[in-house]
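Deliverable D5.2: sample structural annotation.
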Amino acid sequence: MKFTYNWLRDFLDTPLSAQEVAEQLMLLGFEVEDFSSTLPNLDGILVAKVVACEPIANSDHLKRCQVDIGKERLEVVCGAPNVASAQWVAFAPVGTTLPGGLHISARKVHGVVSHGMICSEHELGLSDEADRILVLDQQETAGTLLRDVLENDWVIDISVTANRPDALGIIGIAREVGLRTNTPLKLPKIRLSESKQALNKLVKIRIDDAVGCPRYAARLLQNVAVKPSPSWMIKRLNAVGIRAISNLVDVTNYVMMETGQPLHAFDFDTLDQGTIVVRRAQDGERFVTLDERKHNLQAHDLLICDAAGPVALAGVMGGLNSEVKDATRNVLIECAH
């Protein structure tokens, strides 16, 4: 079970440092498998201000930039589509080695000598975002070390035994740590806006295998917009090994990490007759999961189906046929066990 120290502190005003939290978890009987910073080695990488930015002749995307690194201004070539004047950016001067091993040297690009690199999050080892440069949210001091202005967090990875499912969520871990330090748990206030129309008038749910799934609960979100998640959520999910996809998918994973309860989002408009049926598979029944893998199912496999056939392999992965996409407008959120 991976979580970050700052995420834990959303639920617990603990006086303990990240290292001390890890130590207390070991005393509580949890094996700490990993303890690491969310920041890679950013030695030599500076905060810089883009003071000028103009297109380079005969190039459809390259720009000649002037960057202020405090003690001097340098000319740099940048091909990122979002680079612009007045931005505060991450800058790797000549002589710097990036986390991926790339050594920065002065080089001529389209006739312009580039004295360093304006970096993307991917180049800095912070995320998979490679097409756009990292733009800092607020004004900083040119020449400051980048690691001093980025939020540093700590990832703690613990092994959880079968008798401690309460520790499969950050809230459960916060409760344990709070008991060690006599610190009260902080739970968020739930604010839920509901329409007057009953869900059972819109969605039909039938459980044919109550042994495999004793309870199936759902919520229907209507007229939603699929877009990227906020950067803070993406960073937290990336830190615990979950790839960000979109706001509607990411929030299900985010809540799962906090509570320990898996959720799944279906594009409701793809569900035949607005129906959910929980049943066992038929031997040889075929199903394609979100990772585009084709499966020949066996009779012991538990399925989430609509009126036409499978839409998810229960407790494992959703189906490609009910995937939340950019055009999705209505989403059914599943919460089952």
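Annotation notes: The chain has three domains: 2-38+152-181, 46-145, 199-336. The radius of gyration is 25 Å.
The annotation will be released with the project's public dataset once the embargo ends.
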